[in-house]
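Protein folds are increasingly written down as discrete tokens. With that in mind, we are printing a sequence and the tokens encoding its fold.
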Amino acid sequence: MHRIRKITAAVLAAVLCFSYAHPASAQRTSDTYNYDRWGDAIPSQAGYEAVRSVTGTDLGTSKFSEISDMFIAGDGKFYIADSGNDRILIADGDLERITGEIKEFDFYGEKLTLSHPGGVYASENGMIYIADTENSRVLRCDGTGKTDLVITKPESEQYTAVTFRPERVICDSAGYIYVVDTNVNTGAVMFDPDGSFRGYYGANRVQQTAQVIKDHFWKLFAGEEMRRYMTNSVPTAISGFDIDEDGFIYTCSSSLSQDVDKIKKVNAAGYNLFADLDVSFGDRPTADYSDYPQNSFADLDVSPDGMINCLDYTNGRVFQYDEECELLFIFGGKAERLISAI
């Protein structure tokens, strides 16, 4: 079944436009680039060609405002989280018109509204999952807004965050719900199909830097009072995720300070299948260009043919990798023109 979760509505709805900015300042000859065997950036053949841009008025509705997420379901419909307008929009597969708009929700007679929704996902059975960020909850509803589940902050000792702030949400084929919570760095928050808190899934590892190893060594000999004042090394939080047709969940991290687990493919047991690969995601430093761009991966998309598309929020670029994590090309940049879009 054809299902694609788009990495960002800003790219795909073309509310923003970009131009190219090459990591090596001496080479600005192509909108698309890759790296050769020596680690030097070289122009690459363009993988995509942008054909048009789309605005809210083009679709027959009011202007978009702070679009935060977009999802394409198996039937081709677009689901758009228009965060600034506190609404979920449903568009036809050709992005020609809006076929549905949800601003009010009926939860067994209780009327609910959104407040800056951060993420949207549509399951195979047509149910819509919404990360209602500023309301600190996740909603499950149908296309009319009829809601059968509201998930709020877990009442569990395992959930130690002070607040619940969902930014992204997905659901697997068994109905389990996964939430990116900006207050949690122990993986995605996982819920049963009935909304019961189940635990955490796919936590990132702590990068083993020299300082981390040194701190761990001294803690072996430090007393309890001294440990209270020592710095704790914690994993980075997940910034975005996607689920492929085989049920594997891919996650990304927006951290600029750590390279470990920037992009992961996680199995049912929570193990990162990319952990043992000799692969580095993002731009590469070169001998003659040490000041290379840092990459902050805000979201990703895994296409039906296994291509992994990662959005670098810092530089406005998309990195595409194949199933074996081989870099195919990089395109985009921050400026004022249309780029090729996935």
Summary: The chain is about 5% helix and 35% strand. The chain has a mean pLDDT of 83.
